[in-house]
Amino acid sequence: xxxxxxxxxxxxxxxxxxxxxxxxxxxxxxxxxxxxxxxxxxxxxxxxxxxxxxxxxxxxxxxxxxxxxxxxxxxxxxxxxxxxxxxxxxxxxxxxxxxxxxxxxxxxxxxxxxxxxxxxxxxxxxxxxxxxxxxxxxxxxxxxxxxxxxxxxxxxxxxxxxxxxxxxxxxxxxxxxxxxxxxxxxxxxxxxxxxxxxxxxxxxxxxxxxxxxxxxxxxxxxxxxxxxxxxxxxxxxx
Length: 238
Description:
Blueprint: E1 2-5, E2 11-14, H1 26-37, E3 41-44, H2 66-84, E4 88-91, H3 98-105, H4 116-119, E5 125-128, E6 131-135, E7 138-142, H5 152-157, E8 160-163, E9 170-177, E10 180-187, E11 211-215, E12 221-225
Parallel strand pairs: 1-6, 2-3, 3-4, 4-5, 7-8, 8-10
Antiparallel strand pairs: 2-11, 6-7, 9-10, 11-12
């Protein structure tokens, strides 16, 4: 478990990007957030890449092959997310860590392949199973996605909690006990919901909500929704 000191710091928690099947304006959205709030800690909740071509779900032949998808994703990382946030902490996840899951499924030792920061050429990105962020109002537990149930992740970890994974959950709920206040939050996502790579979730309710989450210097969480115009493009407002 990685522990980070977030006291008196602006923290940005980025939701599922699923590169290269992200919303076309997700980098513009994140740049606007960076310019406005100037976060000093960047956390990616996981599913940074989609890896559709090697998914355990059915592969859509109209989409990229595995090699082309990876090359496209790495190019997109370097022209966008890595340029914007050269240092970032990421959470291991079902899509983002899919390459390791596939190798493990085939019985190949994981230590025989490159770590992701070498594969992507992002030396200051680091991956962790869980993160605990210390804030002025107490510790916050972060994982990719363990439970979508109301308040459960915060309750079972006995501290505030933030998750991604559940693309249609974009919320902060506060819970009070004799021990004090804590919150349970979901970040939404930054995917292109119309992409065929997201077809596995086409019958899901609710639908994807675009956004991410900010923790201010006092430790208070805030949802940041990507607001769209009539053409489905980011309207530039934060």
